[in-house]
Amino acid sequence: MSSGLLPLLGLLLGASVASGLRLYATVAVIGFLGRSGTLALPPGLQILAHPWVILVATSLYLVEFLADKIPLVDSVWDLVHTFIRVPAAGRPRNDAGSCYPFGPRIPTWIQR
Length: 112
Description:
The chain is an all-alpha fold. The chain has helices at 5-21, 23-36, 51-67, 71-96, 108-111.
């Protein structure tokens, strides 16, 4: 196993699990850590360090946080995001792993 593969695998597994729980917070934190230079993002995930991506993810996290406080809005939010979180949790693995020629990849026709 390559020495750079293990940290990448840890980042991808951690980000995928966290995305399934709090998608926007995960994107904002990973983007902020990449932007500040604390975390070396793989080429496929460097877009997360863009200031607009961090701003939008942080804003959506605040909306999600407030939506959790209102019972009916919370239920609708969770219903909609049930279909958003699953593909979004797998997306970092697909994007960051694109620089390595191994492992299963999501076929292009599914991504569209």
